[in-house]
Specification:
It is built from eight helices and seven strands. It is α/β, with parallel strands linked by helices. The protein has one domain: NAD(P)-binding Rossmann-like Domain (Rossmann fold, 3-Layer(aba) Sandwich). The chain binds NADP nicotinamide-adenine-dinucleotide phosphate.
């Protein structure tokens, strides 16, 4: 198939957490680049609305990413669209804020299950399907600047994102010989609905987010999604095991 290096024409990509935010934006960007998408999340209505808004083919898988049955359901849905090319492990939670000494085992278990273990389970289901095509593939894991900075009151979240980056490097080495690249995207503050709401109701927090960037503003969902499309494309074929910061220069400064 003829495609330009940045095109995803004919490529099938599973996106977890695709019912809103960065995942929904990534679905729109992948579909707009010619790809077919499998959308995974728990909210059936929201997933249906995202699917209906896409210009290209899609399938919807309703379920929790930590449910052991769901990764295989996503791979089966992808097979209906064609050979599996990409996996975007985007679903992530940050359910509460507390200092380390007040972070419970239950909180650790929940966040590790969703942010880290489910990403591994999706990779375990998707990688053999990609290897079987013989055409290579792509995995993109949604990390965060939290993997690099000791963001206070978010110890478990920070650790899951650093863990995802370790997973990225490990899988990159293991699956490079099969032509499968594995990279992380590490966004700074991106104005999903929830973040925008927080900023609208707390101008001091909004000012803090903005003042720490070099660019002088926070990022949009599209600005997180397009670098993911790049990593999924042929243009990024020689890039693997990397963590790409999409933070408006927040970590570039002291
Ligand atoms: N926004 C930012 O500023 C920012 C910055 C750095 C990193 N990130 C990372 O980027 C990713 C997306 O963030 P976002 O801001 O777009 O989040 P969001 O707006 O809260 O959306 C999260 C998505 O994940 C899904 N999800 C959550 N728990 C799930 C579960 N157990 N099973 C299946 N789906 C689940 C949600 O859908 P349902 O509720 O329908 O299941 C939703 O589609 C996350 O990994 C986050 O850590 C975001």
């Amino acid at each position: 198939m003829n495609r330009t290096p940045f095109s995803l024409r004919g490529r099938v990509v599973i996106i977890t957490g695709a019912s809103r935010g960065i995942g929904a934006g990534t679905a729109r960007a992948v579909s707009g680049s010619g790809g077919s998408v499998v959308l995974v999340a728990r909210s059936a209505d929201d997933l249906g609305a995202v699917a209906a808004s896409l210009p290209g083919p899609s399938r919807v898988v309703v379920g929790a990413v930590e449910d052991p049955a769901v990764p295989a359901m996503a791979v089966a849905a992808a097979a209906e669209l064609g050979d599996l090319w990409g996996l975007v492990n985007n679903a992530g939670i940050s359910p509460s804020y507390a200092p380390t000494a007040e972070t419970s085992d239950e909180h650790w278990d929940e966040i590790v299950r969703v942010n880290l273990r489910a990403a591994a389970a999706f990779a375990r289901a998707a990688l053999p399907a990609m290897v079987a095509t013989g055409a290579g593939g792509r995995v993109v894991n949604l990390s965060s600047i939290a993997a690099f900075a000791g963001l206070p009151n978010l110890v478990a979240y920070n650790c899951t994102k650093a863990g995802l980056d370790a997973m990225t490097r490990t899988m990159a080495v293991e699956y490079g010989p099969a032509g499968i690249t594995v990279n992380s995207i590490a966004p700074g503050t991106i104005t999903t609905e929830m973040v925008q709401q927080m900023m609208d109701t707390n101008p001091a927090l909004a000012e803090k987010f903005v003042s720490r960037t070099a660019i002088g503003r926070v990022g949009t969902v599209d600005e997180a999604a397009w670098p993911i499309v790049f990593l999924l494309s042929d243009a990024a074929a020689f890039m693997t095991g990397q963590v790409m910061l999409i933070d408006g220069g927040r970590l570039a400064g002291a």
